Amino acid sequence: MTTTRRTQQERRDQAEAALLAAAAELVVEQGVRSLTLARVGQRAGYSRGIVTHHFGGKQALVERLARATQAGFVPGLDDLPPGLDRLLRLIDGYLGELARLGVFNQAFLLLWAEAATQPDLAPIFRERDDAFRADLRIDIEAGIAAGVIDPGLRPDDVAIAIVGQLRGIALQRLLDPQGVDVEQVRRSVAGYWRRALAPA
After folding, report:
1. Sign of the CA dihedral running 114, 117, 123, 127
2. What is the CA radius of gyration of the chain?
């Protein structure tokens, strides 16, 4: 039986994935203050030197973790054109993913909440929120141009409200999994936004 040797890039990608998973687990279990390069390396089965080699320092590790945890949170949207349909699918998909709140998503929410009081985290999560709102604005503006979203609405305001609602529901789910019926909420929220955005 022949085994295929992994390339250096494959080994690098595998190590980075293991380190990010270890970092996410530590954040979920013990908070961001527990996150040290040595502990991440130990949890992942690597040396601290490997963590330093991949990320340089804790700040870069947290930045990479923030990007990794948010990337592709709602699958299946890339092929949809901007507009109301994609916006509503994003809202519905985001809430659907909360039913399966994995360690990466939990880590993102905990880091996001902590960014309000941590000066080193705040710029990272401001950037992530800016990018999220920018994506939403594209859909809102396309919906206005297509005549299916009220032209009197300000895209910036709507984007802020949607991010606030989604992140707020996510944090409630994280804090009280039994008290937040995601499927029930999911049934009403997309319908709420469809009505709220409809032209007068």
Report:
1. positive
2. 19
Closest by Cα among 131, 143, 147 to 81: 143
* Residue located via tokens 């944090």: 171
CA-nearest of 47, 31, 35, 164 to 110 is: 31
Output the furthest CA–CA distance in the chain (Å, rounded).
68
Digit-coded pLDDT (tens) for 143-191: 999 999 999 999 999 999 999 999 999 999 999 999 999 989 998 998 9
Rounded to whole angstroms, the Cα distance separating 2 from 25 reads 35
Tell me: the pLDDT tens digits for 41-100? 999 999 888 889 899 888 899 888 887 876 656 767 888 999 999 999 999 999 988 888
In angstroms, rounded to a whole number, what is the distance separating the alpha carbons of residues 109 and 129?
A: 12
Residue 77's closest CA among 66, 87, 64? 87
User: Whose CA is closest to 88, among 195, 173, 181?
Assistant: 195
Give the pair of three-digit tokens for residue 37.
């390069």
Q: Kindly state the tokens that stand for 76.
A: 């299946």
Contact between residue 61 and residue 55 where contact means Cβ atoms under 8 Å apart: yes
pTM for the model stands at 0.83
- Is residue 193 within 8 Å of residue 93, measured between CB atoms? no
C-alpha span between 193 and 86 (Å, rounded): 12
Which two structure tokens, joined as six digits, stand for 151?
């032209």
